Amino acid sequence: MKTTRIGQLASLAVIGSLVLAGCGSDNTSGSGSSSSPVAVDCFTGTINAEGSSAQKNAIEEAIASYGKACSGAKINYNPTGSGAGIKQFTAGQVDFAGSDSALKTTAADGGQTEAAKAEAYCGAPAWNIPMVTGPIAVAYNLKGVDKLVLTPAVAADIFAGKITAWNDPAIAAVNPGVTLPSTAIKVFFRSDESGTTENFTKYLKAAAGGKWAAEPAKKWTGAGEGKEKSAGVSEGVKSTDGGVTYVEWSYAKDNKLGVAQIDNGGGAVELTGAAVGKAVAAAKQVGTGNDLALKLDYTTKEAGAYPILLVTYEIVCSKGKDATKAKSIKAFLKHFASADVQKSLEGIGYAPLPTEVETKVLAAIDALS
Amino acid sequence: MSTLTQAAVEPSTTPPVHTDLTGMSGRRAFTDRAARVVMWGAFLLACIPLVWILVSTLVKGGHMLLSGSWWSLSQNGITSRVVGGGAAHAIQGTLMQAAVTAIMSVPIGVLTAIYLVEYGRGRLAKVVSFMVDILTGVPSIVAALFIYALWVTTFGFQRVPFAVTLALTLLMIPTIVRSTEEMLKLVPNELREASYALGVPKWRTIVSIVLPTAFSGIVTGVLLGLARVMGETAPLIILGPYTKSMAHDLFNGLMATLPTMINQDRTEALQPALDRVWGAALTLILLVFVLNLLGRFLGRFSKVKN
What we know:
The complex is a heterodimer. By secondary structure, chain A is of the alpha/beta class. Chain A is 38% helix and 19% strand. Chain A is built from 13 helices and 14 strands. In chain A, the strands form three sheets. In chain A, strands 1, 2, 3, 4, 6, 7, 8, 9 and 14 form a nine-stranded mixed sheet that branches. In chain A, helix 7 (195-207) links the parallel strand 6 (186-190) and strand 7. By secondary structure, chain B is mainly alpha-helical. Chain B has a domain at 86-299: MetI-like fold. At the A-B interface, helix 1, strand 1, helix 2, strand 2 and helix 8 of A face helix 3, helix 4, helix 9 and helix 12 of B.
């Protein structure tokens, strides 16, 4: 009968497409990055992580080099933002979270703190392990201006919407000899909850001497137009003359945006890996024991230290819920923190962990169980 | 039904012009021409975005599809700065999830439609029909959040590909019910009556007379519904995080799909990642196109003559 023939045909089509699709395979050979294979502790299985988009490029690089050495290991990282990452982590949806700021130990709304939620989920304290240090660039797109210096006070006024044109006397005062056009300033900010926003507003609050009134937070409180994620704001600036934003250095580099020099009072500092390293080394540890939450000194006047930066953490259970998973996470993080991988990150806009911090990080990873 | 509307839209041959009955012929000819211009204009206007989308995806993503590795490799171990890898993981994920969605929603949808057309009388049928109407109007993000609330918040499960198919099923059932219903209504009542007259019970009449007659229409409806849910993105973003590697397990781990592959790198500035986004978009368009063609082909191929 006709029906059965059609039925056969349809099922043949469905099965055929499934079989065809099933032919695909993972390319285990890998390609690209030139770093020599390092001795790594391999695991077989899958780790899922989610969080900060600031460390997306860094962790992608680490995953690629780890996968090259260990073909049985699958690590997924979804760059959905620090806030989302921590939420999914405490809800038990991912194995570790990437965040641009350490877990909060005070709750804004008087409820359970992030740290307490994470501890409740883990059954043991969750540790903040600094893994990637990324400078935040004040990236701009202004025709004819290749060199721009900003002081924290001027930056605060720009991002609060108080200075609205590039030829404002306040900007001109810190840029002697530069011809500034009268283009309107167009501020772009992160519309999603972001650790980058939090770190940048922390800097403005600390360094701008009262010019920035709002409390630092993951949600933007200043002026401007919202764009999604790091890539969104850099795209916004790239396509707008007069645009300015705060974004991780790697995104500013990839989009070939202008990067402002920052003058904290000790002279204008250009954004370089060395300038960032100087600032990270000066950071204080505020976590206890192996919880390596750091406090950065945003007001540093040290010559040659670039003050706006973020440290992105991996947030992990100090005592894993599942022993094999915990071992896998440990193996991967160890690889991520290794000197070779850290060094390879410099080429893509991150600064390697300073040696003394790296030693502490490796000790903390060793203590995971 | 589609053929009917098509016939109505197509400009028919000009009716014989009565030259000088009222002296209005000039006006009528003008009206005719004006209507024609407006209709063609509207048609061309509707075509602009379609052609634009097709051309730009072809130009920007076409070269990706030409390499063999696009169809056979995943993105495992590839970063957004490196050229290489393929979309096999996402293509497979999309097809697998679509197949499972169809397996779940086709029986429910078709049986509901049979009930509504053949058996449904009174209050229950009205309520069912009303509920289907409501389901049709549910936005995909709401269906996704409903499944998230049920699957993750209430039951405490992990986000797995199967949860995605549940949300897609919610979206697909009403379209199948509606299209099947229309097809069953088109089956002439004389066929049913003739069957009853021969003493054939109702259920046999439905199974061997009504369903075969409407079969091609039902299949077309199912394939069109499938093509629609394959491009659905909201449930995937909420319930099915992206992964770069191949996955075969619907109940464990993550599974990549074409929409999430597009979403992953859509705001990226690096050329290799951008190429992949366009490539994935073109692949998705192609898949949906093939399904549509298949639907029409099956519909024509199996037409039952009245």
